[in-house]
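Board work, copied verbatim: Winged helix-turn-helix transcriptional regulator
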Amino acid sequence: MPIPQTADTRQLSRTYMMRLINLIMEDRRPGETASRRLKQAGLMSCIYTMHLAGESVTVTKLCERVKAPRNVVVEIVKALESRGFLTYRTNLHDGGRGRVYVYSLTEKARALVTVVE
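↓ predict structure ↓
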């Protein structure tokens, strides 16, 4: 499903990303570098784009999209969960063996998309 490309959507996306980056960069956690926070902002950008397109967000899809190893993506996703931006549900994997985690934006993350006055 393509992302609607209206002026309003582009403006909301810019607003969302500016707010998200500010929140992540200002919320310094013990032992966390600026580089780690930038990686979180970058992955959230990808997750938000997938959300807008109606795609399901899984670690496998994120790895394919950002061309990063699974352990790197999992580490970033866990950090985003701890910040309260992501939540997950488990689904049965295709073929019925194993489970897959499907991530979605939390209310906290969706609330960043309000229009700036």
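Strands lie at 86-92, 99-105.
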